Amino acid sequence: MSDHRSLPVPDGLEGERLDAALSRLFGLSRTRAAELITAGDVLVDGRVPSSKSDRVSGGAWLDVTLPPPPAPVVAVPEPVPGMTVLYEDDDILVVDKPIGVAAHPTVGWTGPTVLGGLLGAGHRVATSGAAERQGIVHRLDANTTGVMVVAKSETAYSRLKRAFKERTVSKRYHALVQGHPDPLRGTIDAPIDRHPSGDGRFAVVAGGKPSVTHYDTVEAFRAASLLEIGLETGRTHQIRVHMSAVRHPCVGDLQYGADPTLAARLGMTRQWLHAVRLGFDHPATGEPVTFESPYPADLARALELVRDES
Fold first, then answer.
1. Span of 127-131, 216-220, 297-301 with lowest mean pLDDT
2. Which residues, 6 or more positions from 243, have their beta carbon under 8 angstroms from its beta carbon?
3. Which residue ranges does the chain devote to CATH 3.30.2350.10?
4. Catalytic sites, residue numbers
5. What are the positions of the active site (predicted)?
6. Closest alpha carbon to 271 in 171, 138, 136, 173
7. Quick one: which of 232, 231, 250, 233 has its CA closest to 241?
8. pLDDT at 181 over 90
9. How far apart are CA 272 and CA 70, in angstroms?
10. Is 3.40.50.2300 the CATH number for 3-66?
11. What CATH code is assigned to 167-310?
12. What is the pTM of this model?
């Protein structure tokens, strides 16, 4: 059932764009606010606004019909082929996430998830957090492979969430990128937010969330470089966005400007990016622990081909 709201524009929003004002008032994304305006679900002083970019006046009367909240997404417990558990105790599970598996269910994702796979294999996970994200303290993109930790106990959940937030977790990735970064070792410090196109990509955007990526060249080839990457922040698609922004996209990452010819030659159908190592203080004992994941077959094969060509 839809939800109808009538209220005046607060004086503090005087002069704001209508879509921005709706976003602030109702916690909507700018895109969703614009959709409501286009659909005729927003009236300003009883009239249909001419555009989402109309400026609002303090005290103007808004009538807004909000859509019903989406049904909660829940993990379907079913084993995920190829997902292995690297380590398990009473507090944590460490998995080696394969290609094509999301961390947890989201609206629009119908594929397998780490959470569903663990539940399907009979593992217990923490129930803290939103139902669709229980136990999940950090994420990897669906097509980024590698090591990922999941909380089993409620204590582990809260301590690991804090550790990721306070950036005391060591996250190391290997990426095969096009060309040769100059300098060979460096830091990319550039804010990231959703791409203005609204097509699901992210981009370096003025006023975005602060994002810091450190990289170091491990091996240079004729057409590409193997980098070890450390993250200070954990933005969605951060490594992919930052490497693309400095014109060295991950090999195979067509969404972020990689060369399709090179990708096809190396048999890459996704970005060459792997979470190779994860280190943190164990949430129960406080002892430092480190877990590693070897390259999966598609990445190892592409790397060999690049080596052979060089």
1. 127-131
2. 175, 177, 188, 213, 215, 249, 250, 256
3. 70-166, 167-310
4. 141
5. 141
6. 173
7. 250
8. yes
9. 34
10. no
11. 3.30.2350.10
12. 0.78
